């Protein structure tokens, strides 16, 4: 099944996964919940390639979870701010965090 097939699914889980169902999108949202908004901050914190980050940010904007806002004209720079829909997704990420803390402990170093 393709992601585009999920977007129009009758299943609400499938529709959600079609918008945020990859590692980078979830990690970007996690960082946005922590207050990060700028491309360079996401790239530095996540260690993700710029082209992948740009793609995922664009998809999150298109899905309505983030809003792109210009914060300086020269040079042109944008930040990515959570929308109301994006903020509504925070309990999902918090539930994943709680599950990971409880059921998937880190291996001892």
Fold topology:
Blueprint (H helix, E strand, L loop, with lengths): L2 H5 L4 H9 L2 H11 L5 H8 L3 H13 L3 E7 L4 E6 L1 H5 L1 H14 L6
Antiparallel strand pairs: 1-2
Structural overview:
The chain has 109 residues and is mostly helical. It has a single domain (23-103), classed as Orthogonal Bundle (Arc Repressor Mutant, subunit A), CATH 1.10.10. It is built from seven helices and two strands; from the N terminus they run αααααββαα. A two-stranded antiparallel sheet has the order 1-2. A hairpin with a 4-residue loop joins strand 1 and strand 2 (77-82). It is globular, with a radius of gyration of 15 Å. The model has no long low-confidence stretch (mean pLDDT 93).
Give a quick summary of the entry.
The protein is mainly alpha-helical. The protein has a single domain (23-103), classed as Arc Repressor Mutant, subunit A, CATH 1.10.10.
Top CATH class: Mainly Alpha
Q: Judging by the overall fold, what is the CATH architecture?
A: Orthogonal Bundle
By DSSP (H or I, 4+ residues per run), the number of helices equals 7
Q: How many separate domains?
A: 1
State mean pLDDT (0 to 100 scale): 93
Short key terms for the protein model shown above:
mainly alpha; 12% strand; globular; 109 residues; 2 strands; single chain; Arc Repressor Mutant, subunit A
